[in-house]
Design goal:
single chain; alpha/beta; 3 domains; six-stranded mixed β-sheet; 42% helix
C-alpha cells in the first residue's frame, strides 16, 4: 500500500530474517566476529544469546552468508526433537550417504548391474529408507566417516541449533557426545547454540556441567540504544529506497525507542504501522502523532475505541430499532449515494431520548406494555448529549438542529479525522471487540479502517469506517472495491470546519 506511495523497492520493516537488512550495532558486529573466529579456529562449542526479538536469527542468516564454500552447515530450526530426530536431521542437512552400501535386491544381483548404471532415483529412495531405519550407531558411524573425509579435504562442518534453550536434557547430552568426534588436534564438528537468555540458565544446571565447561565462546546481544535505534531506522529506509521520501522526526524515533525498548522486532512493527498511518495522512514526515497511532493499533486499540462487551438482554432489540430509525428518519443525498453523517447522528440522538431507561425505575406514566410495538415509541422533545469529544463548529448550513437546541449545541461525531470530507460506513455493532476485529480485518485486507464510538438508547454504538478521503472520486473508488469484496458500505460526507 505505502510501498508505491513512498517509492520503496520493498517493505523496509519486514519481520522476516533478511540478512540484507541486518544493522550491525556494536553487539551484532561483535557477535558475528566471535562466531566467525570460533568457526575458523575450530573452537568446538559456542553460544549466542539474546532477548526475544534482538535479531539472533537474522544474525545467523548473515553468518551463513559470510561463510565460504569450504564450510558445510547443518541448521536445526526445530529444537523440539528427540535424539534420533537430531541424527536424522544432521544426515539429511549434510546429505550424508550410508556408511556402507545399501543391500541390493536379488534382481540386481542376478543381472550384475554395475553401480554407475543404477537408477539415481532408486539410490535416493534407498538413502531415505536407510535414514528412517538405521540405528543410532549406524548414523553415528556415517557422520564420523563424513567428518573425517571433509577434514582431510580442508573443509569444516558447523551445526547451528536455534532456540536451543528448549532442548531436552537427553538431546543436549547427545550433542555433547557429538563433540567427541575429533582428531588429536582439532574438533571435527563446530556446534553453535542460539537461544534466549534462559539458555545460560540451562547450561548452569548441575547435570549439564560437562557441556557448560566445553563452551569456549559466549556472546550476548543486547537491545539497541536510542542512537542505534535512529541509525537502524535510517539504515533500513535507505536499503528499501536509495532516496527515501519519508523521514522520522527525532521525537518520533524517541517514542519508538521507548515503546520497543530497543528490540529490533518491535521497532520494525512500530515503524511499519507508522508508515501506514503516514500514508493515510498523506504526509512525508512521521512524527509522534503517527507513532502514537501505530502503537495504539499494535496494542489492540483503535481510534476512539473502548474495549468493552455488552451483555444486556435487549441489546439486539436496540440494534434493530436503531437500524429501523435510520431508515425511517431517512438520509438526504448530496450526490447520488453520498449521505450526511450529521443526519445519522441526529437520528441516533433522538432515538436515545426515546429509549433512555429510567435510573430510578419505571413510573406508572412511563411503564410500557409488556410487548410494545416499535411504532409506539415516540421521541421526547428535549435534546440529549451524545457524550463524545467535540469537534470544531460546523457551518450552520450543514447542520441539522434538534428540537430545543441551537446549531452550536449539536454534538460532534466521535473520532472524525480532521480535514476529512468523505468516509465509508462499513459496519456497526454494540460490541467494541467486534468493531475492533472488523477494523483489524479491513486493515489486513489493505483498507484504511478506523472506528468511532457514540451512544444511543443509553448504550454504546461502535461504527467502523474506511477512509477518510479528501476527494469524492477516491471515496467512490473504494466504495466499488468494498462492494466487490462482499461488504455493504455507505458513502458518507463530513462537513469540514471553516
Amino acid at each position: 500500500m505505502y510501498i508505491e506511495y513512498y517509492q520503496f523497492k520493498e517493505k523496509p520493516f519486514n519481520l522476516t530474517p533478511d540478512p540484507k537488512f541486518l544493522y550491525y550495532s556494536k553487539h551484532h558486529q561483535g557477535a558475528l566476529d566471535h562466531l566467525l573466529y570460533g568457526i575458523k579456529e575450530r573452537e568446538g562449542f559456542m553460544a549466542l544469546m539474546g532477548g526475544v526479538g534482538t535479531g539472533k536469527t537474522t544474525l545467523c542468516r548473515a553468518l551463513l552468508d559470510s561463510l565460504d564454500d569450504k564450510v558445510n552447515v547443518a541448521l536445526v530450526l526445530n529444537p523440539m526433537i528427540s535424539t534420533m530426530d537430531l541424527f536424522r536431521t544432521l544426515i539429511q542437512e549434510l546429505n550424508i550417504s550410508p556408511a556402507r552400501p545399501v543391500q541390493r535386491s536379488r534382481l540386481f544381483q542376478d543381472f550384475d548391474i554395475p553401480l554407475e548404471e543404477m537408477d539415481p532415483d532408486k539410490e535416493e529412495e534407498d538413502k531415505v529408507e536407510w535414514i528412517q531405519t538405521a540405528s543410532k550407531k549406524q548414523m553415528f558411524d556415517a557422520l564420523n566417516d563424513y567428518l573425517l573425509a571433509q577434514h582431510s579435504q580442508g573443509r569444516s562442518t558447523v551445526l547451528i541449533i536455534d532456540e536451543a534453550q528448549t532442548l531436552s536434557f537427553e538431546v543436549l547430552e547427545q550433542v555433547r557426545l557429538l563433540s567427541n568426534l575429533e582428531t588429536e588436534k582439532e574438533k571435527l564438528l563446530q556446534i553453535i547454540f542460539v537461544g534466549q537468555k534462559e539458555l545460560n540458565d540451562r547450561l548452569l544446571e548441575p547435570e549439564l556441567k560437562q557441556l557448560n565447561q566445553r563452551i569456549s565462546i559466549r556472546y550476548e546481544i543486547f537491545p539497541l540504544s536510542l542512537e542505534e535505534c535512529r541509525n537502524y531506522i535510517n539504515h533500513r529506509l535507505t536499503l528499501a529506497s536509495q532516496f527515501p521520501r519519508v523521514v522520522f522526526t527525532p521525537k518520533a524515533i524517541q517514542r519508538i525507542h521507548e515503546y520497543s525498548q530497543g528490540y529490533p522486532r518491535l521497532i520494525n512493527l512500530a515503524c511499519d504501522r507508522a508508515l501506514l498511518a503516514a500514508y493515510n495522512d498523506q504526509v512525508d514526515v512521521i512524527d509522534r502523532k503517527q507513532v502514537k497511532q501505530a502503537i495504539r493499533s499494535l496494542s489492540g486499540e483503535t481510534t476512539q475505541l473502548v474495549a468493552e462487551e455488552e451483555s444486556s438482554g435487549w441489546a439486539w432489540a436496540t440494534a434493530a430499532g436503531v437500524v429501523l430509525a435510520l431508515f425511517a428518519g431517512g438520509f438526504y443525498a448530496w450526490d447520488k449515494d453520498v449521505f450526511s453523517v450529521r443526519k445519522i447522528e441526529t437520528t441516533l440522538a433522538s432515538l436515545q431520548t426515546a429509549w433512555e431507561p429510567s435510573q430510578s425505575g419505571p413510573s406508572p406514566e412511563t411503564t410500557a406494555p409488556a410487548n410494545p410495538e416499535p411504532a409506539a415509541l415516540t421521541p421526547k422533545p428535549q435534546p440529549v448529549s451524545m457524550n463524545v469529544p467535540e469537534e470544531p463548529p460546523l457551518p450552520v448550513k450543514n447542520r441539522v438542529e434538534k428540537p430545543g437546541s441551537s446549531a452550536e449545541d449539536q454534538p460532534a461525531l466521535p473520532g472524525v479525522p480532521e480535514f476529512s470530507d468523505y468516509r465509508l460506513q462499513v459496519f456497526s455493532t454494540h460490541k467494541a471487540l467486534e468493531a475492533g476485529r472488523k477494523v483489524r480485518t479491513l486493515k489486513e485486507q489493505g483498507y484504511e479502517a478506523f472506528a468511532t464510538r457514540a451512544r444511543a438508547a443509553g448504550k454504546p454504538w461502535h461504527v467502523v469506517y474506511v477512509g477518510p478521503f479528501k476527494k469524492l472520486k477516491a471515496a467512490k473508488s473504494r466504495l466499488k472495491t468494498l462492494k466487490e469484496s462482499g461488504h455493504q458500505p455507505i458513502l458518507l460526507t463530513i462537513a469540514k470546519s471553516d
